[in-house]
Amino acid sequence: MTAGQTGRPTADLPRRRRRSSTALLLLLAAGISATVLVALVTPDVMSWARCSAHPVVVHVAVSGEIEPAIQRLGRFFNSEHRLVSGRCAQVTVRGASPAEVTAALARGRGSGIGAWIPDSTLWPDIAGSSPAAARLIRPSGVIAARSPLVIAMSRPVAAGVPAFGTSISWKFLLPQTLGGPSDALRLQVQLPDPTQSAAGLATLIHFQRSFGNGGRQARAELARFILSVRVVPPAARGVPAPSLAALARSASPGVGPGNRVTVTSEQSVVMFDRSHPGEPLAVRYPAEGTYQLTYPYVLTTADRLTQAAAQAFGTVLRSPYGTAYMRYEGFRTATGEAAAWPASYGLAGSMPHLLPPPGPAQAGQALRAWRRVNLGTRVLALNDVSSVMATPIGPGGPTMEQVLSRTAVRSLARFPANTQIGVWAFASHLHGSLPYKQIMPVGPIQSPFGLVTRRMQIQRFAAAGTTVPTGAALYGTILAAYKTLAASYQPGYANAVIVLTAGVENAPGDISGARLVHELSRLYDRRQRIQIIVIMLGRAGNFPVLQQVAAATGGKAYQVTEPRQVGSIFYHAFGRRICAPNCPSGTPQPSASP
């Protein structure tokens, strides 16, 4: 029995050893698996921990139309949990105008912006004129997208405008007097604000180039273009540009306010047509060639860690995924590659012919001209109603009063909406002992005056213009008007007294021309500039004296001997703002353009 008892455990030993070995192997495999699993999971856990604890956040400011695409790429980048110097890199994206970013960068380190994607390489160059901004701006070499410009109309409206044709010039955006289409088409140009949109800025630069540089006539033509367009803000948060939204609301063909046309980008056309499938746009690439929006990725921080995170995001912008998504959103890639546009979009698959891109110096000049011409105007207009105004301006022609009412006063009524205007009529003892009578005090041209607006009241005054059988106290009225405008001077406006007159001074007891020049020279304040602009009708007046009167305030006197000259004078006056106060003297009188 003993032997039998001892032999049984001996027989079971291999089986027990096999069981022990298997258990050890299972434990060893579990340990190896756990080790590998920990090794695989640890980077993600560490990455998540770093992202939630101390991420490096890059605030990216972008143009409104590209914001949705960059938002999408930003979310993709954040999901990758990329590390820079052991910390997670993240981006936040928001829309911002060039002016907003430039102002922020000018504040230096307090800007809070780590990267910038404007709609043109011009904006970083312009912003770099600020020393503080120049220290922060660093080109990355990455172009996020491109989008050439087109001229667009509502398709139903374009069908009723033969001039839109199959090929059009940039001149399609100009008034008829500058070589544009007939005024009978009653086109309304919707121009994206050049101070906020590279599409508007490129258009402005193009016409500044085509009109010529620096000359008096070129300034007048540029002013005429600027004053002829309706300015609209740029697109925001990926919605259709306001100029395109206006096209969607266009009236039937041939109805004046409905004949709207604008400059926009290919990408805006794509997004508009997608959101308005029943209202596709008619688009044309300008025959001379076009410009393109270029979206550079610019680093705008001095912090090295933020720079590193921003550079990491730049790799996503130029990645295959990033460029493919840009094409989907209607943009071209940095190399000009487009998506497969539907034929209904009317866009070219290959890159259209591009004109030489403007430089920052041209952009700066164009923006200065734009701001000066569009500076709010504060005007006191003096209208001569003395007996001499009943004299024909030329043999067999209309009287000076008729010319004044038909053209000059109506031109005042067409001043921009940011104008403040007042009107006096003057002769001799027109209002008791005063040689002038206030028709309306200075106020916003769009504001109510009685039952109508000031603008409409001026037009009524022009239609009802009559003369009185007395002489004119011209010089005394000019001095009184100058003092009145000076007493209510408002900064931020171009303040001016506009004198519409036959130029004859024949009121007994009035001051002399020499006395007026002396008084104006004494009163003139360079810190509060008030110009006198004189438009003298006919040849009866003393034009040399009126030239001295205007020059005493940095203004200008014009002599009109043909009715057609009157309309162009106002554009020459606006054009003078571009070079004021250093405009060359001795320039010729305006041509007799309509």
What does this structure look like?
The chain is built from 19 helices and 18 strands. With 594 residues, it is an alpha/beta fold. It has three domains: 56-144 and 296-327, D-Maltodextrin-Binding Protein, domain 2 (3-Layer(aba) Sandwich); 146-295 and 342-366, Periplasmic binding protein-like II (D-Maltodextrin-Binding Protein, domain 2), CATH 3.40.190; 375-579, Rossmann fold (3-Layer(aba) Sandwich), CATH 3.40.50.410. Helix 14 runs antiparallel to helix 15 and helix 16 packs parallel to helix 17 (513-523). The termini are far apart.
Secondary structure topology:
Blueprint: H1 2-53, E1 56-62, H2 67-79, E2 83-84, E3 87-95, H3 98-106, E4 115-117, H4 122-127, H5 131-134, E5 137-154, H6 155-159, E6 188-192, H7 198-211, H8 216-228, E7 230-232, H9 242-248, E8 260-265, H10 266-275, E9 281-284, E10 292-300, H11 304-317, H12 320-328, H13 360-373, E11 376-384, H14 400-413, E12 420-431, E13 434-444, E14 448-449, E15 452-453, H15 454-463, H16 474-487, E16 493-501, H17 513-523, E17 530-537, H18 543-551, E18 556-560, H19 565-579
Parallel strand pairs: 1-3, 1-4, 6-7, 6-8, 11-12, 11-16, 16-17, 17-18
Antiparallel strand pairs: 2-3, 4-10, 5-8, 5-9, 5-10, 12-13, 14-15
